[in-house]
Amino acid sequence: MNRFTRRRVILLLVLTSVLLITFNNTSSGLVGSVRTGFGYVFRPFKGAARVVTRPVESAWRGITDYGDLRKENLALRDQLARQAGNAAAAEAFVQEHNELLKLQQLPVAPSISTVIAQVIGDTPRGDQQTVEINQGSRRGIRVGMPVVNGSGLIGRVTAVYPDGAVVRLVSDPQFIMSVRVTCPAAIPGVVTTTTTTTIAAPEITDPVITDPVITDPVTSDPNSITTTTAYNVFAPGTTVPIAGSGGTTSRCDRETGALRGRGRSDNPQIGLLNDDSLSRSIEVGDNVVTAGGNDSLAPAGLPIGKVTRVVLRRGDSPIVEVKVNADLAHLNFVQVLLYLPVSEVSG
Amino acid sequence: MLYILRRPWFRLILLALVLLSIQTTLFSEMKPFGETIDIMLLAAAATGIVGGSQVGALAGFILGIAFDLVLVSPFGVSPLVYGIVGFLAGYATGLTFQPTWYLHSAFVALASAGGVFVFAIVQYIVGPRAPLSAAVLQTAIVLGIANGILAPLAMPIQRWCLGIKRAVV
Asked: How much is the ipTM here?
């Protein structure tokens, strides 16, 4: 140690760090394995610390949050009353939708099993937007599965342990997901799409999950009926219907892109939208839902948020800013959708 | 066995585990002004103050490795930044003649705030492209003040951990 000068040690540390960063970018498998291994070792320490520090944490919350909690409690009671009505309406819509599909001998939207989990830990450092939940691989949770709460998608599972998992939130700079911009919902909290179903559609025996096919309304067949389908992915029950299977969608659903998180203080943005001259203009207030797809880790139609700003760029696709529906700073109970990409299921 | 426990760097690793446990439980929930206090950064800066720039850089590196093992952000960023913070804190202390405790706290505060900016820059270069916004300034101010307040508590712990005797004035 003594033969090293201070400069050499510093240089060595910087080079080692750069090497680690490079190694992380080129061989994430090894780094991931080391992190998982350390996670197993570290969990008892963390569990003990959680028990020991709980009184301090409770005292802190008592001091800082008391006033807000009273106000929030009253607001939540009102919200709960409204949501009960919305949920009942949404459930009726889902039932109606499935009955119509049955009538047309089309595959009924399959359901996804969910696991309800509680958020037990917040992000350990400000630059990372994650939460820890109390359910893990023992309940069937796997890396990549989407996580929702009553307001919509909140993130995706990024690390799993037997009795816990880490969820990367939509606001995390490393979060990316293909999304679709749709028309505003007619009922608050319920995603609504206009679906055109061809009467002469061939009978499909096996239920399949497909992306909606986009059609031009100008060339629409007169032998088709147009129905409005509303679905609430968080209706009471333990399963979540996959929206959008069977049928085609209107132009309202054309705009697709990649949603990226931008940290705690900035709203996520959608980039790489189709630069299509036929596409309608995106407006503030439009809904943003997951796009789905064969390789997508989330089913189509999960609500994420609303468009708050559209930045048009000359000669380039616009950038769309999205306000996430869910209050990511105050998460409690969440649902992990035990969803596997279609390609993985069929493969 | 006892011999191993007396080894400063072994004690630092154990301390890193304890601090990491507290960071990921208590301090991930306690958020003054919505900002997460980073006691790993505090420990790196405090080590630099009590042990000098070289020891500070090495301790920061170890603390950063420990933290990166529980995060899901790019691996290697924290050791780099914490190492720089430990070095800067030690370097600043080395420039002053008989610094007082409040000057130590100020150095820890400045090094911590500087660390936030370094983090933002390094992550912008190597990691996910989070925007460099005014929020970074707010984080730096809150974290700097919080770590400055906690510094008088952290420095004796780091002194004990690394077996450093307090300089007699």
From this structure: 0.81
